[in-house]
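User:
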Amino acid sequence: MIVLENPLLEDTVVEEEGSGDESVDDMEISGALKSGKVSEEGMKTMTHINNIPKLKERLEAIQKKLPWIENLDVTVDLKVPIEDMKAVINDNFKQEMLFYKQSQVGAQQSIARLISMGISTERPEVLS
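Assistant: Predicted structure:
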């Protein structure tokens, strides 16, 4: 025996094994199943609290202040004229080329920074 307790059901349904022939449509017609509409009174309301000082405190706790060499974050400010941007919006190939150019500039900046730090950017001969 299976007991189904469902908030959409008017009564608790006890289903004997092997008696699963009744479909959902039949249950709706017979009135055993309420309509699928959710009433506002049945919904729980959740209050959201925007505690900015606490959020900032948690952000500081999870932020890692590591040296650049540990994360290699790069931000590229590639200026694109407005006229060119209008053409890029509707052309996927031009979008991909813009992403490629941004990546290329970022890689060049990173390599220059690594070299200035005295870190080799070439593959070791033992791995060649």
